[in-house]
Amino acid sequence: MLRDYPALTTVMLQAGIGYAQPGQTLPEKVTLDDPALQVLTDFERVTAIIILSGDTVDEAHRRMIQRGVRLLLVVDQDRRMLGVITASDILGEKPMQVIAERGIKREELLVRDIMLPQERLDVLTLADVRAAKVGHIVTTLKKAGRQHAVVVEVDRKGVQKVRGVFSATQIARQLGVTLHTTSEIARTFSEIEVMLVR
């Protein structure tokens, strides 16, 4: 039986090579009238960066820097969504408040202590996003006062799964608006609004 299937020839693995990873290429430039999907980081095309709720906040920050992202999905051991943690959460006042309240050291601060939990996380549906323009997403982020919006896909039974995320920083970059610091979200939206008027 196996004589119909000769073994393949093998080669030696070269030193210093990489490995295939899902890749999504977003358009370099968009306008506010372009489809919103052109600024969505789609987790079917890009691996979502995750962290466990019991990991330290310092580990979450290291992972963000290492992967070049400003939001991590917080999951449990079974990779079920528990919430999100952002760079703003880590670098803002929340960690100091928790440290002061609990009398703990910075290195003892856990992701679960400062993350935005699932029960408080407003999300967008992929169905709505498919019909939206970039300008709709900008307005939505501005209204919420957030830098990120999580997008869920809903199956026929009404069950959600996280499909992707919008980032104000990514959208601004694609619109050609320069950001100098992450605390410039209000200014970013103002600049984008000026573009809306044009």
Overview in brief:
The protein has 198 residues and is α/β, with parallel strands linked by helices.
Task: Write structural notes for this entry.
With 198 residues, the chain is an alpha/beta fold. The protein has one domain (25-197): CBS-domain. Helix content is 33%, strand content 18%. It has eight helices and eight strands; from the N terminus they run ββαββαααββααββαα. The chain has helices spanning 57-67, 87-91, 94-102, 111-114, 126-130, 134-144, 168-175, 185-197, and strands spanning 41-42, 50-52, 71-75, 81-86, 116-117, 123-125, 148-154, 160-167. It has a four-stranded mixed beta sheet with strand order 1-8-7-6. Helix 1 links the parallel strand 2 (50-52) and strand 3 (71-75). Helix 7 (168-175) crosses helix 8 (185-197). The longest helix has 13 residues, at 185-197. The radius of gyration is 20 Å and the shape is globular. The chain starts with 40 loop residues before the first strand and ends with a helix.
List the helices and strands and how they pair.
Layout: E1 41-42, E2 50-52, H1 57-67, E3 71-75, E4 81-86, H2 87-91, H3 94-102, H4 111-114, E5 116-117, E6 123-125, H5 126-130, H6 134-144, E7 148-154, E8 160-167, H7 168-175, H8 185-197
Parallel strand pairs: 2-3, 6-7
Antiparallel strand pairs: 1-8, 3-4, 4-5, 7-8
